[in-house]
Write a structure and sequence with these properties.
By secondary structure, the chain is mainly β. It is built from 1 helix and 9 strands, in the order H-E-E-E-E-E-E-E-E-E. The protein is globular and about 40 Å long.
């Protein structure tokens, strides 16, 4: 009986190790911070959603679009959390704390506001998922959510990933605002 009692603490402690999913993978920690916004067009029409989730090594960006023609559209993070229609110019320039050029194919780029294009299908919907390495939402020396917030914009054309300042992606056709440090998070 003493042997069983002596082994009981070891059995209990063995259950305190990392939790495993099937296939033996360790579960990832949930995002530290997640924010989301609705994307609207120049007349206030719904154009989709954007969600940003702060991870250990960057920020995961998920964008879904709707009501667009079939095609490819540039998507960027902008420095100011204002989406005043019709041109959305109040969102300011791309988020670029490192003062770099635009585009992953630019020898001097890319900056933190650069995101991949989103492709839409025949029904006008599309989705883009991407992790921006090193980006921080609310901590670090240059967080995206500073006092004036940030915005995410969809442009009228395809980003060529090299032309500064916006990859020749054209007019701003949809915008979503992330308020400043006081923004609601979930």
């Amino acid at each position: 009986m003493r042997t069983v009692v002596a082994l009981l603490p070891l059995i209990v402690l063995a259950g305190c190790g990392p939790q495993k999913e099937s296939l033996g993978r360790t579960r990832a920690a949930p995002p530290a911070l997640t924010i989301s916004t609705l994307l609207t067009g120049p007349a206030g029409e719904p154009r989709g959603t954007a969600r940003l989730s702060q991870l250990t090594d960057g920020v995961e960006v998920t964008v879904t679009v709707q009501g667009l023609p079939p095609g490819t559209f540039g998507v960027h993070l902008h420095a100011v959390g204002k989406c005043e229609a019709p041109g959305f110019t109040t969102a300011g320039p791309h988020f670029n704390p490192g003062i770099k050029q635009h585009g992953r194919d630019n020898p001097s780029g890319a900056h933190m506001g650069d995101l991949p294009n989103v492709d839409t299908s025949g029904d006008g919907t599309g989705r883009m998922d991407f992790v921006v390495p090193g980006l921080r939402l609310a901590d670090g020396p240059t967080p995206l959510l500073d006092t004036d917030g940030a915005a995410i914009l969809v442009h009228a054309g395809e980003d060529d990933y090299k032309t500064d300042p916006s990859g020749n992606s054209g007019a701003r056709i949809a915008c979503g605002s992330f308020g400043g440090r006081a923004a609601s998070t979930k």
